[in-house]
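Title: [Solved] Saccharopine dehydrogenase isoform 2 3D structure

Original question kept below for reference.
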Amino acid sequence: MASCRNFGMRFHSASTRKNFTHVSESTFGRTYCTTLARNYPNACERRAVYQPRLMLRSVSYPARKTSIPKVLALSNKVTSSEDSITRIIIVGGTGAVGSAVAAHLLSEATCRIEVVLVGRDKEKGARRVAELSARLQTNHQICFEPLDWRKKDRLRDVIRGASVVIHTAGPYLGQQPDILQECIRGQIPCYVDLADPLDYIQAAVALSPQAEKANTMAILAGGAFPGFSNVIAMECAARLNAPIRDVSFRYFTAGLGGSGPINLLITNQGFGEPVPRFRRGSMQPAMVSGLEPERVRFYLDSSDASAARVGERTVWSWPFPEVATVAKELRITSDSSVKMGTSPEAWNVIMGWLVKAVPREWWRNEAFSKWMADFSEPMVTFTDQFVGETHCMRIDVTDTSGNTCTAIQGHDSFRRVVGQSCAEFALELLQRSTEEEGGARWTPGVYLPEQLFADSQGRARVLQRLSSVPGTFTYRYSMEPSGGYAEARTKETGAEELKR
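Solution (posted by the thread starter after getting help):
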């Protein structure tokens, strides 16, 4: 087996977990849990130490055992035996994106993990566990825990003792970072979410001092866009190695119906929000969501796999937070912009008409946006049969001398790449939590991707992970006007190709 990623929990000695009793909802009867009965591969190179056992008991199924890594007082590092298990909670884990996160974790984790899917729909939870357990290849565990995360007492019980909590239960608009706050209170080592409203992100970042004290490390907006795209923009800026003037993000997705009705709701609500773009070096929000159409080329040249897969597409403005947060991190001197488009082209035209006709405050109303999402979902699902699933990003960063670095990234599935990206951010935090000196640093706090991966070492490692996930069909950079460098990685044949 390939080199092992060391997983475990890192926390202050004062926060060592105590044994506790967990009782699942009596109306549910039992927690769905399954383990593939295979010998666990001897892949983890760790020092073996005695591991105390943590017993999780439910009202009507056999006790589930989890072990807590022993904390070494001098180094605050975690070592564990091969029998230990790393517990990962996915809030919203029964959704289309949450289950994609789980699938990638179960596929990529080379040390033993227990993934707990948290959601309100018990039947859906049982189906997701059955789907995921059928593909298990190692001695991992996959379970479902019935929970409305807004019930704080139950949430605390479920996340207690976890190594990482992943929050995928959108939409985030109108929410407060309550799950992050509970993770900080419970001294959970690692946290990742997919948040995109700027107000939510700002409220979460304000919790960073508390996270530092609790030894919690959190990544916000840790998906494909925002998330992966933020890190790509930082890489483009680093390649230019000069003060940055402009940054632009362009996104394309086909097959949005495959990512579930929640994503349709999030898109609709976005039409009621201002785009927090920069103009002349400062943030100047504008109510232009769904407007300002533009044709974008989602490839660098004809040799790019995305030339045939995606080609040129129409995109329109949408209020993704990276247009403000990355611009701020790079201290740009002029403009930032962010736009997205979908397929078939008719949807872009229809949405443009609707945004002009329907008052913005209606889109901000969740009931109206949900009605629109429910109304359009059958049509989106129907057209998805013909357009298929595709995802592509183009990021352009221009320095004050006019030189531009462009990056293109493409994937077979929007839903999968969001889940895979989120999972890889979580794996990165888990690796940092157990890494010896010389690796990427463990720095508790609350971060956006562009902040955590501003350094070249950490950025190179996470970009390697994010750009290598299954389904990736292109990942390229180019420098203009010099045009002296282009890098491509193709996954269509399962091989890597580097072009210079």
